[in-house]
Structure formats: structure tokens, C-alpha cells
Amino acid sequence: MTEGKGDDILVIDDDRTSRRMLLQALRSAGYHCRDSASGIEALETLPRDLPSLLLLDFHMPELNGAEVLARLRADADPAIAQLPVIMLTGDGGEESEVLCLEAGANDFVTKPINLPVLRARIDTQLRLQSLRRQLQQQNKELEAWRENLERDLAAARLTQQSLIPQKPPNLPGWEIAAEYRPVIQVGGDIYGWLRMPDRRTLFWIADATGHGAAAALLTTLAKLLFHHGSVEHVEPAKIMQAVNADFRSIFGARSFMTAMCVALDPESGRASVVGAGHPPLLVTRQGAETELVPSNAPPLGLLEDSQFAETAIELRPGDGFLLYTDGLYGPWKEEGERWSPTRLQALLAQNESSAQGLLRKVVERVAPDAGSTLPDDLAVVAVVRKVATGL
After folding, report:
1. 206 - beta bridge partners?
2. Do 333 and 372 form a contact (C-beta atoms < 8 A)?
3. Do 347 and 365 contact (CB within 8 A), yes or no?
4. How far apart are CA 145 and CA 151, in angstroms?
5. 164-385 belongs to which CATH class?
6. Which residues, listed in sequence order, are joined to residue 194 by a DSSP beta bridge?
7. 200, burial (CB in 10 Å: exposed 0-12, middle 13-18, buried 19+)
8. Cα 301 to chain centroid, rounded
9. Which of 25, 80, 327, 386 shows a CA-CA span of 20 to 30 A to 264?
10. Within 52-174, where are the H helices?
11. What is the C-alpha to C-alpha distance for residues 278 and 302, in angstroms, rounded to an integer?
12. How much is the pLDDT for 373?
């Protein structure tokens, strides 16, 4: 007894003798086969008992092969509409071949049937059908994975949004404005501010490696570490050192992030700046050139014994500073040249008198379209000391 090949072939032919001969030959070759005497009968049975492949005679009464195929391909069930069909035709010549293929057949075999040729074409169509099913299954799995990822990113986005300050702190005599634009739902940038024990306010910003949920987790950790460091220390250099030590103890040297913090005394306007591999702080001056305060230490997490030094600045009425991540460097849209600290410095040569004005001047110049896809996460914090008004 010949072992079956595991695929069910439906032979549709109105000629009983032709069907019996074809069934016998295919079964002898190891195929599972069944037959139908007309196209109407076959179409009625397909929803109940779906075969793997159809062998369809072109010339039949009532519905010919082309008409059967037209109904088959129009079926609402994709499993039926996409069934592989090999047309059997007694007509020779290119015209018959074109008619079969235009009708929607996957292949055709002319009569009298050459069995080795038919077997080869059957095996080819069954292999293609198997590959299509595998691809459909992989697409389903990919879609399920995408939906799960979208849910994870949505949850991560809500978490990160809860960490990003939604409104500036109430700091008399000062204006604060901030903006955050991740590449996707979540990103690797984060910023914040907190009240220090010595009544100064610590403004900080960090940029973790990568994008997406993994980077968002690093930003969550960054906020915890800065808050923990500010509880134990009052000097910004020691706060940064504590953040670096905790970050490296968790990841070793496998991950890193850049960061910068500014400890501001709102009464005097004096501030201390510490940077770790982060873009320079931009300090705008009322009636004077914008200054750059560069980072003086490598990114957090790279070295175990990084040394952090503080740079002192003083902000008078009308002065301000800009904390930002390297997402501000672009390039954006059709502009080929990347932005840089010196370009930003030149842009702010004529400083703005408000934090919101300073923020908008930078963001709208380098990233004018809020709805466009960004090349990198973008975070900006602007702080400006108000100019006294009145007599």
C-alpha cells in the first residue's frame, strides 16, 4: 500500500472515465484524492471539506472551469479564494494557456495528461501553498507581537509621562519652560527639578542610550538616582558622583547616559553647573554674548571613579540658561548641516526676555514641525531670571 502524501486533492471533471483514471494514477503516486462531477457540486462542498489543491477541467457543462474559478476567487473566505488550482484542458496552444491563467489558475496541464508533468506541478503548487500558509502564520505572529509591543509602549509612555514634570516649579523671580518630544511613544531623555536642603533648586537633565521601552526604563532609574543623590548631598558634584556610582553598580560598564545639573540659588542668582558627557549649557546674557559651559566629566556609567567639578555662574535679571539633549542638534528636514553648540550660541546672540520665548526660539528654529518624525529624542529646559518692573 502506498503511503499518502498528506495533502487532499479534489479532482473536478464531468467525464467519469477521465476522473477515475486520474484518481487511480494520483493515488498510485501517493496522493490523497477525491472527486466531484461538476463545478457546482464542488463549490457546494468546499466550505465543508476544504482540499489542499484543485484539479479543474476547463470544459464542463453548466459552469465551465473559468466560471468556477471566478466564483472561487470571489469567495469571502480567504482559505477558499486562495486555493491553488491547476487547470486541465484539451486545447493546445498559447491561447488556451492564456485563457487558463487569465481565469485565475495557478498552473495548467494539457490533455492527454503527462503524469510526471502533472505530479511535478502538483508538488510545486503544494509547496507554494505550504509556504503561503507559513507566511500567513508568521504574519499573524508578527501582528500579535506588534500589538503586544504597542501595549507595552503605551504603558511605558504613561509611566514616563508621570515622571516628566507637567508644569514648572513656582520660583519667584524666575520663569521656567520645558518641552519633551520622544522619537516614538517613549524615549531616552528626561529632566526634572527638585528643592535641595540648602533651599537651592536643582535643575537636571539626562539622556540615556537608545530609544523605546529600554531607554524609558533608564530614565525612570535616572530620576530615582537624582532624587536619592539630592537627599544625601547638597553639592551638585557629589550628587552627580553618587548618581554615577549607583548607575555603574547596577549596569557595570554595559550602559551609560549623559547628564547635566544646575544648582540654582534663586535669591542671589548664583549657580553651580556639573556636566557628564552632556551638551554644553547655554547661558544667555542680557545685552551680552551667550556663553557655553561644557561638561567636564565623561558620561555616567563609563568610569567607576569619575571626578566631577563644578563651574560657577551668576545670573542677573534678564539672564537665563538652556539645558537640552543632543536631539537639538538635528539635522532636521531638508537642512543638511547639523546644529551644534556654537550654532545655538549664535542663534541666541539676541537673547529672549522670557523662558517661553527662549524655548520657542530654539525649538521652532531647529525642529519647526511638531508632528514630524524626529531623528532623536528631544528635551529642552529654559530658565530665565525676570527683569524687575515698576518704579
Report:
1. 190, 259
2. yes
3. yes
4. 10
5. alpha beta
6. 202
7. buried
8. 26
9. 327
10. 65-73, 78-81, 94-102, 115-163
11. 13
12. 58
- CA atoms of 241 and 226, how far apart (whole Å): 10
Q: Residues 86-118, buried b or exposed e (16+ Cβ, 10 A)? A: bbbbeeeeeebbebbeebbbbbbbbeebeeeeb
3-state secondary structure of 142: helix
Task: Dig out the grid coordinates for 348 from the structure.
Answer: 541666541
Dist. CA 161–CA 289, nearest whole Å: 35
What are the sequence ranges of the domains in the chain?
8-137, 164-385
Q: What cell was used for 105?
A: 489558475
Q: What cell does 257 get?
A: 547616559
Dihedral of CA 176/182/185/190: which sign?
negative
Give the 3-state secondary structure of residue 373: coil
- Is residue 27 within 8 A of residue 19, CB to CB? The reply is no
C-alpha cell at 160: 514616563
CA gap 318, 283 in Å, rounded:
11
Helix (H, G, I), strand (E, B) or coil at 362: helix
Using CB atoms within 10 A of its CB, is residue 187 exposed (0-12), middle (13-18) or buried (19+)?
buried
* Whole-number Å distance between alpha carbons of 288 and 189: 30
Three-class secondary structure assignment of 267-312: CCCEEEEEEEECCCEEEEECCEEEEEECCCECCECCCCCCCCCCEE
pTM: 0.64
CATH assignment of 8-137? 3.40.50.2300
Q: Half-sphere exposure of residue 356, counting CA atoms within 13 Å on the CB side?
A: 2
